[in-house]
């Protein structure tokens, strides 16, 4: 045999044998270290899959490589670096919170404790007209001051893009997408003034909106019950929303009123969608106050009619009968004009304070009585002991008139008092949750039972929304079946917002998965004791990495910023 043929034979042997980790040299086999030949990084065995599409549960294994679902089927003969046997558990897509207030708080606690523990893998922040930018002028200085006072957090960005960049450097346990807030844009351009914008101002707002979309925002949100969004006319919102139509982005709105004028407010949202040519998402749909409960039929009729007329309209709602907001929402709009300092000045003016009282009393009569309002957060540490107390009981204990009590609290907390209002009916809540146009969302932000995010008594939706929807409303109340509720918290939100390759268990999709015990999943957070994780969540996987394992946080931070791309 010639020398060349010996070399060729050796090459052939080495090429064939290298797969098994050895090389041939003369008559000797030498073993070498080779890279792992496993087909998958993780195989999840014995899955009962509810895939997010609304289809029935089925059995299969799931093979994950890097951050993607590669194969679904019988993988018993396939190899993997890691295996999880989940026999007896439901495997669903990771939950997508379509209306979240998580954003900047991920810098305070990137573990996203209250959300990841309830199975949330993706959050859509920037809601109710407020987002993590863009800020300009006084609004930038104000947010810098507020965030440093509250969290000792230094703001080193001005725009949505800068926020996204910092979050990518900082890392978090969950994926985050964001709308851009109309209120944030308007305040940057016009301050807290109650007037129509000049042409130059509307042009500047359009520039900031377009810049935010170019930086990755998934749409525009409004908070038309809050200042400064409440100062905007319908025409102003339409002008801005028109910019979304080119990219098929969504207009999400905390509508102008959720009680006595809820029908007019829903109609306004529909009109904006039609005239701007955009998809509409009505945030946390509700009809507050017993005298308004029956209006839910007309609300549904309006939306169903608009849908039949080809408007892409949906809504979301949390599975509780109480809302949560700032105490100043009880006061008339004119009193809140100009921002917190102006509002506090008016509260200190006895004549103006008396003028405001009728509006506040009307709100309380709408709810029923002062005990329908519970304090959940106070900025001044001196008043932290009030968190969890009802206004009526508190006033009686201190022999104070309730209205005078809330005025005092607002003044001494710089208008930073959070409340919970018990204003919705259980029957309507169930009808809203089960409606085919509805999705389920927390309307809550990132909290934790420890550290700076443990303050106060936040609404239990922060910790319990999704386990409550599945455990209480699906398993116990049986208002919908499991595939239906999973669809409302996975593929529906992803498709509504336009997030690709998430929200379903499907080959080629990102490996965001929530694995839970259907017989045990339930919320444990209450209004008095809200900082409690739910039960029944076994594993939560984000981008192929395990974040919750056997109910405990692993410390992994594999979440990503999800930017809209044109």
Unreliable runs: 15-21, 23-34
Rounded mean pLDDT is 94
Radius of gyration: 27 Å
Tell me the name of the CATH class of the largest domain.
Alpha Beta
Distance between the termini: 64 Å
Taken together, the total number of domains comes to 3
Largest sheet: 9 strands, mixed
Question: Which second-level CATH architecture of the largest domain applies?
Answer: Alpha-Beta Barrel
Proportion of residues in helical segments: 25-40%
- Share of residues in strands: 15-25%
> What's the assembly state of these chains?
single chain
Tally of extended strands? 23
**SSE class:** alpha/beta
For this structure, what is the CATH homologous superfamily of the largest domain? Answer: Metal-dependent hydrolases
CATH topology of the largest domain: TIM Barrel
Number of helices: 19
Compile the SSE list and pairings.
Elements: H1 3-17, E1 22-25, E2 28-31, E3 40-49, E4 58-65, E5 68-73, E6 80-85, E7 90-93, E8 95-97, H2 105-108, H3 113-116, E9 120-125, H4 137-151, H5 160-170, E10 175-178, E11 180-181, H6 182-190, H7 199-214, E12 219-223, H8 234-245, E13 250-254, H9 262-276, E14 279-282, H10 296-308, E15 313-317, E16 322-326, H11 333-336, H12 340-348, H13 350-367, E17 373-378, H14 391-397, H15 402-412, E18 417-422, H16 426-434, E19 438-440, H17 461-476, H18 482-488, H19 491-497, E20 513-516, E21 537-542, E22 545-549, E23 552-553
Parallel strand pairs: 3-6, 3-7, 8-9, 9-10, 11-12, 12-13, 13-14, 14-15, 15-19
Antiparallel strand pairs: 1-2, 3-4, 4-5, 7-20, 16-18, 17-18, 20-21, 21-22, 22-23
Helix pairs in contact: 4-6, 6-7, 7-8, 8-9, 9-10
């Amino acid at each position: 045999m010639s020398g060349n043929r010996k070399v060729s034979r050796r090459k052939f042997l080495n090429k064939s044998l290298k797969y098994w980790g050895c090389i041939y040299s003369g008559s000797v086999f030498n073993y070498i270290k080779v890279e792992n030949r496993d087909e998958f990084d993780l195989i999840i065995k014995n899955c009962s899959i509810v895939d997010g599409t609304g289809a029935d549960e089925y059995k299969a294994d799931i093979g994950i490589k890097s951050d993607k679902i590669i194969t679904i089927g019988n993988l018993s003969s396939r190899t993997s670096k890691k295996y999880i046997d989940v026999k007896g558990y439901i495997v669903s897509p990771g939950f997508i919170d379509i209306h979240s207030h998580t954003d900047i708080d991920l810098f305070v606690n990137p573990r996203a404790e209250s959300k990841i523990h309830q199975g949330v893998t993706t959050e859509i922040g920037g809601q109710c007209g407020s987002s993590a930018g863009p800020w300009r002028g006084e609004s930038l200085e104000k947010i810098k001051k507020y965030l440093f006072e509250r969290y000792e957090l230094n703001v080193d960005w001005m725009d949505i893009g800068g926020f996204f960049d910092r979050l990518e450097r900082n890392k978090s346990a969950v994926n985050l997408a964001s709308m851009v807030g109309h209120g944030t844009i308007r305040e940057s351009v016009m301050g807290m003034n109650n007037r129509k914008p000049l042409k130059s101002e509307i042009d500047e707002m359009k520039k900031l909106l377009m810049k935010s979309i170019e930086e990755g925002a998934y749409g525009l949100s409004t908070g038309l019950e809050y200042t400064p969004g409440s100062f905007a006319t319908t025409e102003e919102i339409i002008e801005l929303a028109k910019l979304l139509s080119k990219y098929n982005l969504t207009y999400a709105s905390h509508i102008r009123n959720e009680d006595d004028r809820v029908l007019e407010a829903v109609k306004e949202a529909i009109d904006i969608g039609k005239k701007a040519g955009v998809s509409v998402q009505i945030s946390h749909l509700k009809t507050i106050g017993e005298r308004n409960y029956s209006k839910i039929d007309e609300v549904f009729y309006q939306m169903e009619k608009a849908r039949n007329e080809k408007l892409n309209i949906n809504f979301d709602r949390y599975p509780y009968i109480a809302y949560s907001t700032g105490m100043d929402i009880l006061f008339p709009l004119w009193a809140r004009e100009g921002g917190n300092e102006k509002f506090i000045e008016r509260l200190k003016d006895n004549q103006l304070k008396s003028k405001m009282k009728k509006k506040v009393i009307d709100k309380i009569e709408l709810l029923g009585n002062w005990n329908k309002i519970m304090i959940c957060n106070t900025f001044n540490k001196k008043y932290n002991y009030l968190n969890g107390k009802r206004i009526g009981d508190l006033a009686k204990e201190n022999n104070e008139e309730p209205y005078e009590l809330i005025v005092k609290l607002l003044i001494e907390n710089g208008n930073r008092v959070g409340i919970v209002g018990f204003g919705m009916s259980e029957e309507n809540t169930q009808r809203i949750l089960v409606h085919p146009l509805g999705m389920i969302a927390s309307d809550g932000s990132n909290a934790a039972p420890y550290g700076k995010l443990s303050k106060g008594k936040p609404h239990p939706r922060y910790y319990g929304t999704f386990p409550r929807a599945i455990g209480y409303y699906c398993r116990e109340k049986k208002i919908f079946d499991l595939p239906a509720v999973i669809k409302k918290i996975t593929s529906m939100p992803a498709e509504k917002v336009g997030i690709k390759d998430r929200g379903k268990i499907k080959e080629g999709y990102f490996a965001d998965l929530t694995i839970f015990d259907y017989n045990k999943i339930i919320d444990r957070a209450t209004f008095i004791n809200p900082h409690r994780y739910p039960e029944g969540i076994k594993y939560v996987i984000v981008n192929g990495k395990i974040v919750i394992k056997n109910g405990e946080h692993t410390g992994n931070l594999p979440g990503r910023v999800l930017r809209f791309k044109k």
